[in-house]
């Protein structure tokens, strides 16, 4: 299979698929051995190169500004999740090699505008006609027991496809805290912004993303009432 995605940024890059991953080749410009290790606090041309590379692959990180802040860290974590690496948010030689190799998740949907929540990799995907457009770090249900109103429950993000039926443009108070700009798709389960997005499942069933990522998801090409959300 060959397809071109983000052609203006990746001219001549071919996409080769294998299993649930997609590899975008031809856009890397340096071997992993020549890249410095980058982490929160790093800055400069190497960070710019990393940010440009991740953005070209669809990993959302906000502005490409040469500053390795929390959004860049979360994009690096998303790459590490997709690649099956340790999720430390530090871009060392192995993570660089996966980025240079063009690793991306492969969509399950084949038509329409769909939000996919991949629970195994803890990533949220924006997919158009089977092509992954954007990739976000997320944290879903912890699968742990919790007590609510004298009843024990399991914190699960249920698998299936559900349409977004309600959204709140602001902070919305819930039984487990305030949710930022939530978009509800399965009862009280929503995609929402939160101040903490761990690299592992940690919620009561919702899909957490960073506050800036939630703002982005409210924008063009993101999530609206009626958008199908597929969790698997």
CATH superfamily of the largest domain: L,D-transpeptidase catalytic domain-like
End-to-end Cα distance, whole Å, is: 24 Å
Main sheet: strands, sense, barrel = 5 strands, mixed
* Secondary structure category: alpha+beta
Kindly report the spatial arrangement of strands forming the biggest sheet. Answer: 6-5-4-15-9
Order of helices and strands: EEHHHEEEEEEEEEEEEHE
Number of helices: 4
The pLDDT mean sits at: 88
Domains (count)? 2
Oligomeric state of the chains present here: single chain
Question: What's the CATH architecture of the largest domain?
Answer: Beta Barrel
Shape descriptor: globular
CATH topology of the largest domain: L,D-transpeptidase catalytic domain-like
Radius of gyration: 17 Å
**Strands, count:** 15
Tell me roughly what share of residues is in helical segments: 10-25%
CATH class of the largest domain: Mainly Beta
Which regions contain 5 or more consecutive residues with pLDDT less than 50?
A: 1-19
Instruction: Give the DSSP E fraction (strand runs of 2 or more residues).
Output: 25-35%
